Structures are given as structure tokens and as C-alpha cells.
Amino acid sequence: MSEHDETLRRTLEENARLQSKHAESLREASSAQFSGRYRWAERIYWLYAIACVVVGVSVINSFVRSDDTKSLIGCAVVMLVVYETTVLLKLWFAIAGMKMSVLKDVKLLRLEMARLASAAGVKDPVEPPVEYEPMRGASRLERRLWLAACVVAAIATSSWSSHGIEFGGGQLSADSVITLGADGSATSVTDMTQTYHGFHRPQAFPFHVPKECKVRWIDPRGQEMPYKVTPAGTHNRYDVTVSEDVFVGGTMKHTRITETPDAATFEDGVWTYKTDILYSLPQNQLKITVYLPPGAKVVSVEPEPLLEFNQEGRAGLRFQAFRGMNEKFAYTIRYELPSTTDDES
Fold it and tell me: Based on the domain organization, do 181 and 95 belong to the same domain?
């Protein structure tokens, strides 16, 4: 073989190697592209799976606690839809994976055919046949993280929905009338109106008051509602059982009567009535009317009341406030009694 032929052979071999490297890089880029699309499809699948878990757990919670036929049927329909959605979602993911796998194999085959055609005139230019590997989806670690996210979503949804179902809806209206006695005692009558979860009627609700207070609850028919008292430090926890008569027009209605001895304190000739209140619902509308003892004279009020008036010889103060969950509303009233003024003179 002449020197010219040897140079030509080496040139052709080098050109074949370069073309082979270029084709290999094209194959790797194509495989990576389809694998990336497959991973995104799997991530979409997991996001939909988390959404189905959230909806499914909340509906199961409602189904277990439902006590009427319409709610049971509604929950059953939603559970069936969620189950069907998960099946269709798995079918979509499988079809999407097969489609992308076929497209990837077709593209790799075309690249291989182009490489073989370009190297047709070279002696022994062909490398071992290309092995078509399946597309690589999410890694094992990522799949475990997605599975953990589903578990966390299920736990959080179960806790949230159980709390919402157990303790009612998100709005409360409390209209209180407080009457102060000359001895510093206070009697509070509060008309409560509260929304509740559409799929379930609460069976009980909690209430905390200082131990020296006496509390009772009256339903719309005038019957006293049963309760259980549990000491909790300086307070008592009342677990009040809800009767059917409490549910009126899609809301819970009842009256709370609280008797507090020594609610007001006496110092330097001035009585001070100071209290605060909070509720655990997201939206709480408070209306409070305070009647001072007969003949009492207001010294100061914090915050400024909505209205000051006098009714049948009693000074009255009216407050109105809107508070969020566990957001406290506090007010202080300082007043003098006629007997106190006479003693000082």
C-alpha cells in the first residue's frame, strides 16, 4: 500500500471516529431530553396524587362523622370520583411513558441509521450496536420524598379537617349583656350564634373560665345543656354536649350565663371592672353591653366604647369588636358608686 493510500485510510478512520463521537453525543442528548420530559410527567403525577390524598382524607373524615343521608351520599360520590381520578392518572402516566419511550427509540434509531450510512465506505467503522435503555424517571430518593410528602399531606389534612369538623365552622357572633352588682359581682348573658361544618354537626364544644365562675348553657327551647367539668390549673374546662335543639337555620344557637363573684375590684374609692375574652374560630364578631350598678358614675373606660347611655338609673357602655382566631379583646371600666362618694365627703 502506497503512502498516499495509508494517509487516506487514516483520514477516513479518524473521520469515522469523529462522526461516531458526534453521533454518541446526539444519542445521549436525545435520551437525556426524553428522560427529562418523563421526570416532569412523573412530578405532575405526584402533584396530582398529593391533591387526591388531601381531598380523599378530608372527605373520608367527613364521611365517618356524617349523620345524615345526603351528606353520606355526597361524601361517597366524591370518594368515588377521587378513586376514579387516581386510576385515570396512573393510566395517563403509563401511556405518556410508553409514548415518550417509543418516540425516543425512533429518534435513536434514526440517529443510528444516519451514522451507519455516513460510515458505509469505511472498513470496520461500525461500533457495537446501540443498546436502547429505558427512560429514567425520578430517582429513588426523589420518589421517597414525594411519598413522604403524600404522607405529610394526609396527616395535615386529617388534623385540619378533624379540627374544623369537631369545633364547627369559621364564624361566631357573641352578643353579651353584663350586669355589675354593687358588691363587684357580674352576671353575663351571652347569645351565641356559630356556623358549623356542612357535612357534620358538632357533638360538643369546649369552654375555659376561671374556677370561681359559675357557668351554664341554655338551648333555644330554654333547656339547660349538659356539660362535663375538668380542672385545668386556675381554670376549669367545660365540655358542653350539643343537643339537636341548638341547630337552627344552619347555625348553632345557645345562651351562655356566667356568674362571677368579685369581678370588679375596689381600690382608693374606685371600682375597676377588667376582663378579656377570646375565641378559637377564624372570625369572631363581639358585641358587649355593660350595665353598671344603679347610680354608678363612670370614671374612665379603655378602649373607648361604641356608645354610652343611661337606662333606668344605670349607666351603660357598649363595645363592638371583630377578632381573629385566639385574638384577645380586653376592656377596662373604672367607676364610682354613690355610697363611695358619700363616705369620702
Answer: no
- 161 plus 248 within the same structural domain: no
Whole domain around residue 156: which residue ranges? Answer: 3-128+138-166
67-71, 126-130, 307-311: segment of lowest average pLDDT: 126-130
Give residue 239's pLDDT band: very low, low, confident or very high (50, 70, 90).
very high
Give the containing element (helix H, strand E) for 208: strand 204-210
- 186 and 79 in a common domain: no
Query: Which residues face 232 on adjacent strands?
Result: 235
Question: Can you tell me the distance from the alpha carbon of 168 to that of 73, in angstroms, rounded to the nearest whole number?
Answer: 21
222 lies in the same domain as 81: no
Q: Is the Cα dihedral 44, 46, 48, 54 positive or negative?
A: negative
* 8 A C-beta contact, residue 54 and residue 153: yes
Please give the share of the chain, as a percent, with pLDDT higher than 90.
34
Q: Residue 136 is placed in which grid cell?
A: 429514567
User: What residues contact residue 343 under an 8 Å CB cut-off, 6+ apart?
Assistant: 269
Query: Do 85 and 189 belong to one domain?
Result: no
φ and ψ at residue 99, rounded to 5 degrees = -65, -45
- For residues 12 and 44, state if they share a domain: yes
Instruction: Count CA within 13 A, CB hemisphere, residue 318.
Output: 8
What CATH number is associated with residue 333?
2.60.40.1730
Residues 150, 148: Cα–Cα separation, whole Å: 5
Say how many C-beta atoms besides its own lie within 10 A of residue 21's C-beta.
Answer: 10
pLDDT digits (tens, 9 = 90+) for 244-269: 888 887 788 999 999 999 999 999 89
Distances (CA, A) of 34 to 15, 131, 136, 236, 256: 29, 16, 9, 64, 66
Evaluate if residue 342 carries a pLDDT over 50. Answer: no
Do residues 48 and 116 both lie within one domain? yes
Number of domains in the chain: 2
Q: Is residue 133 part of a domain?
A: no
**Structure pTM?**
0.55
